[in-house]
């Protein structure tokens, strides 16, 4: 007569080790911080009109920046906007402007209190 096969109890240690390693991997591979958010509104028809005296126009090119047609640098743009006390800025993008240059401009505009930037398409 044959002896019955006796089964060993399964060890949970190796399973717990694998789960722990997966948990550590996903905790280290993911990030829980938010990246910088740049809120802006795109131009659309039908939005409320803005008073022309409080409206300024910024033209952004790959190598240039102008405020109402006057060439400026990023450093002087913030001071000019604070002097004019304009609450609304229209930003027009020139050809070949990359997203990093637009992000740099929007970060500078964000430092002006009470300013709303609207990017034209």
Automatic annotation (TrEMBL):
Gene Ontology, cellular component aspect: plasma membrane
Compartments (UniProt record): Cell membrane
Protein name stated in the entry: Biopolymer transporter ExbD
InterPro entries named among the record's database cross-references: ExbD
Transmembrane segments: 12-32
Organism for this UniProt entry: Thioclava indica
Chief subcellular location: membrane
Keywords associated with the record: Cell membrane, Membrane, Protein transport, Transmembrane, Transmembrane helix, Transport
Family the UniProt entry places it in: Belongs to the ExbD/TolR family.
Residues of the signal peptide: none
Membrane topology according to the record: Single-pass membrane protein; Single-pass type II membrane protein
Superkingdom of the organism of origin: Bacteria
